[in-house]
Amino acid sequence: MTTKQRKTGLVFFPAFDWAISPTHPEREERLLYTQDQVFEEGLLDFENIIEYKPGMAAAEDINRIHICVPDVKSVTTESHLISAGGAITAGKKVLDGEVDNAFALVRPPGHHAMTVVHGNRGFCNVNIEAIMVEYIRKHYGHKRVAIIDTDCHHGDGTQEIYWHDPDTLYISIHQDGRTLYPGSGFPDEFGGPNALGTTINIPLPPRTSEEGFLYVLDNLILPILDDFKPDLVVNSAGQDNHYTDPITDMRFSAQGYAILNDRLNPDIAVLEGGYSVETALPYINVGIILAMAGIDYSYVTEPDYNAETIRQSSDITKYIEREVELIHDLWKNRNDQKAKLNRSQEFITRNKSIYYDTDGINEEQRETVRLCDDCGGLVTIDSRANFMDRIFAVIVPRRSCPACRQKGEEIFESTGRQTFIHVYFQDRDKDIFIVK
Amino acid sequence: MILGIDVGGTHTDAVLINDMKVIKTAKVSTNHENLIDSFQKITDEILLDENIDALERIVLSTTMSTNAIVQGKVDKVGMILANGPGLAPSHLKINENTQFVSGYVNHRGIKIAETNKSEVASIRDRFREAHIRHVGIVGKFSTRNPELETRIADMIDNDFIHLSFGHRMSGNLNYPRRIATTYLNAAIWTTYNSFVTEVLKFIESIKSDVPTYILKADGGTSEITQSAKYPVGTILSGPAASIMGILSLAEGTEDAIALDIGGTTTDIAIFADGVPLLEPFGVTIEGHKTLTRGLRSQSIGVGGDSKVQYENDTLMIGPERVGPAAAFGGAHPTPTDAMILLGLTDIGDRFMAETAVTRIADKMGVTVEEAARTIFERSCQKIASSVTDMITEVNNKPVYTIHEILEGKKVVPQVLYVVGGPAEPMAARLGELLNCTPFIPRHAEVANAIGAALARTTAEITVLADTEKKLLTIVEEGIQQSITSKFSREDGLFICREKLRERAIKMGAQENDIEMEIIEDQVFNMVRGYYTTGKNIRLKAQIKPGLIAGFGKEAIQ
After folding, report:
1. Of A334, A364, A385, which residue is a domain's last?
2. Residue A328 sits in the same domain as residue A346
3. Are residues A330 and A361 in the same domain?
4. Are A392 and A269 members of one domain?
5. Which of A90, A278, A342, A363 is most buried (most C-beta within 10 Å)?
6. What's the mean pLDDT when you consider all of chain B?
7. pTM for the model
8. How many CB atoms lie within 10 A of CB A273?
9. A133 contacts A87 by C-beta, under 8 angstroms
10. Res B188: pLDDT
């Protein structure tokens, strides 16, 4: 492990008075034992670990990246604003240079939340990492950002938000979508036509253990990061790959999470899922905090840890080695692939059905992107939830080219409210948000 | 009639209080070699010609424990740590006699591994060989289940003078602090206990049945024989005496700032609704962060005698003090000298003050008066900005519920209490800078002794009920008992109040001083799979620092 101590900011917000429902995994108790362990280990007494109170995200912070239907207030509670605000606080402390890195240990999570928000899916309403990243870009200038999502579930929300963004590399490592919610995240989901290669999915077979995760980190994720050269690395730090997690089937450990964070060395980590509240989270979180702060974490283990009983099979090892090679090739050839795309049409459209499992909402969506060599491309979204409220959104990308901007303004101008309950104009370049 | 005594760093002060009035004060120099001597001397002096039978209580504030630690006059302590997984042992080792044993309790108080009898026996032998007579036993999460610590004690086959248990130090979590607190408790145990024996012998010689108390770091009192069980509770009672003194000389229940401006430093304390704030985790002494409850205070290096220099176009005030003010024969100009020149105070030799400040004025290229004004202003600003920082820190304290984020109390002081030598000349300007009404209490010169005299007994208790394990733990009292799965928060609150009352009475509290407050009240459903398997109930109650019944409504005369 590294022996260099780092100054680490900790934004701890367990929201002890908020739950989706009393017995839901996302409930009051979730970070209770983590708090106990962090307090008992005396982590807050270390000179280089500084605790910060979370701020509250404002509606404008959310409107910068989401289209909330009908508005922010209707789809969020205070808890979401504090959770997103906590991520922003962590980011600010790092960018202001008060600390070297920061961990937002907050709930509820956000990585299943997509651009358009009709309600809660996969325990998430708004995407707290994306809100943080865009806050940073707005207030601290342009940044190439890499988001490494180590949650056991595919972060389909974060993927969707950055699908067309060539400046944001999204890498997700998760349990194979054929065996777990949300059922997506395969290697061929590789980014939109204007941003091919900046979405990387690494599905892992059930029962992958430390060996497999760290192999993927060392042989795939770190080399890709070396190529991409991000200004900022964010770990979307889900903790449900743990061998005791009740809703997944992986075999990662607290020690493994600590090593992963030590090697990945993220600027900012943000808690996502992880529902083994008693036997995993306390140890994983202590491990991550120590690793980020550069303090010896080698004694952090679960009381019942036994490397032998959770070791992955040799078949899994072989499978992962092969997959890593395949995805690495895909990455190395991304530019050739992009060159081969048919660029004769001006727009590419895809139709999506999005299911909000928590709130039972069915969304039908038609997303159109303008093929563009000069920016991420103008995006329009026509969305309808439960065959009722239909909205239309025009999204001008950050660092947009004049053509995409002009086109976007024209479309917004000419789209009326005859068909849609609301028409939204989100100008990510000039940070303008208009609703009609 | 109440006798309050403060054995301070320089002076030992005493006050006799009767019927809301200070009827007599006394002051002697402290004999550092023999604190008992100072105590006896001042008691003899102040009680001379007084009716001893009218004496209802004696309260003593002493630097005994603090001095023992600061001067390193401590006993060798053998530490046995049942640490389990987590922080590396190198971060937990407190001295060369720290030994680690297997055995581990987790965050829920479930014993995961047992300690081995033979390893404890071999540690015991090693301690004996090293002539260690005091032992501390500290387990991680022993506040959740003290059984492992007591089992280790049983295995030791005790012939040591004293065993200190981690779980008895505090109900709060923080293993490194628990280790430090237990270590200090064991290290000063013998010194403190012999002090108590001497005090009691002397008191018996004047009037045997008068209840005698000692002031603790949290500004509360404890009956003296009870305090001997946990000497670590009496560290840093000096700043606590000063803060309680200001409290007793003030009136009102608003948010306030208390400043004690001395020669070298200024001590800052904050009152929220008239109650002094406590340190969030515990006090720090000689670099040891502890779990000992203590009043929150901050000391900054600005005082009346701070050395003033002007170097590289910068005016510096403090942090060091090199002798007294120039007006009193000191070698360097000080804020006190500036205040003399500005006519804010009429003490010392004005000519000597002027000579010293002129040296600064020449370097600054301004008139003497301007230099004096700048020195004074800068001193006030330095104090004010530290106060503002401290209030910001208090108001930015992390909280863990949405309710507290939205509704949490903010401390907004309206009143500024100032005591100490330069209180009179500085209070008005400090009040302006801090936007508070300044107030200089009477009898400020013996505030510490008054604070000690009038402080009530404080106590804290922690009740944990785990209805899945069907177990109730009150760790400060070493209680563990079984409960049914129907045990409720209300049952817990009842027991919590009951046990706090018992504890306070045992520590010498009067029935009408027991003003209880619930400071933690949380109930969590424990869900495993999709079923609720029990409730995790966490309650904590305290008797907060304050004055004994009959005082505090109005300022003492």
Report:
1. A334
2. no
3. no
4. no
5. A90
6. 93
7. 0.94
8. 28
9. no
10. 97
Q: What is the pLDDT of residues A209-226, one digit of tens each?
A: 999 999 999 999 999 999
Shared domain for A103 and A211, answered yes or no, is yes
Q: Dihedral (C-alpha) A392, A393, A394, A400: value to the nearest 10 degrees?
A: -160
CB contact under 8 A, A29 and B91: no
Instruction: Give me the number of domains chain A comprises.
Output: 2
Name the amino acid, one letter, at B505.
Answer: I
Q: Averaged over A352-375, what is the pLDDT?
A: 93
A128 vs A120: CA distance, rounded Å: 13
The alpha carbon of B533 is separated from its chain's Cα centroid by a whole number of angstroms, namely: 41
| CATH code for residues B2-70+191-235 | 3.30.420.40
* Locus of tokens 């990585």: A111
Q: Which residues of B touch A17 (CB under 8 A)?
A: 401-403
Rounded Cα distance between A212 and A26, Å, is 28
CB proximity A20 to B under 8 Å: no
Residues A254 and A326 in one domain: yes
Distances, alpha carbon B123 to alpha carbons B120, B126, B127, B138, in Å: 5, 5, 6, 14
Question: How would you classify the pairing of strands A199-204 and A145-149?
Answer: unpaired
State the DSSP code for B462.
E
Q: Can you spell out the DSSP letters for A130-187?
A: HHHHHHHHHHH----EEEEE-SSS--HHHHHHTTT-TTEEEEEEEE-TTSSTT----T
Cβ neighbour number for residue A293 with a 10 Å cutoff: 24
- pLDDT at position B555 is 62
A146: left (phi over 0), alpha (psi -120 to 50) or beta: beta
Q: Is B532 on the interface with A (CB under 8 A)?
A: yes
B159 pLDDT band, cuts 50/70/90, is: confident
The verdict on residue A256 lying in a domain is yes
Instruction: Give the mean pLDDT of A389-405.
Output: 95
- Annotation marks residue A139 as catalytic: no
Choose, from A111, A112, A118, A154, the residue flagged as catalytic.
Answer: A112
Distance from C-alpha of B536 to C-alpha of B527, rounded to nearest angstrom: 10
ipTM of this predicted structure: 0.94
Domain range spanning residue A139? 8-334
Put simply, whether B529 touches A (Cβ < 8 Å) is yes
**B531 confidence band (pLDDT: 50, 70, 90):** confident
pLDDT digits (tens, 9 = 90+) for A66-83: 999 999 999 999 999 999
Mean pLDDT to the nearest integer, A345-358: 92
Residue A358's pLDDT band, with cuts at 50, 70 and 90, is confident
Q: Which ranges of B48-94 does DSSP label H, i.e. alpha helix?
A: 64-70
Per residue in B366-404, pLDDT tens? 999 999 999 999 999 999 999 999 999 999 999 998 888
Domain boundaries, given as residue ranges, for chain B: 2-70+191-235, 77-187, 456-543
Q: Do B525 and A22 touch (CB under 8 A)?
A: yes
**Cβ neighbours of B113 in A, within 8 Å:** 303
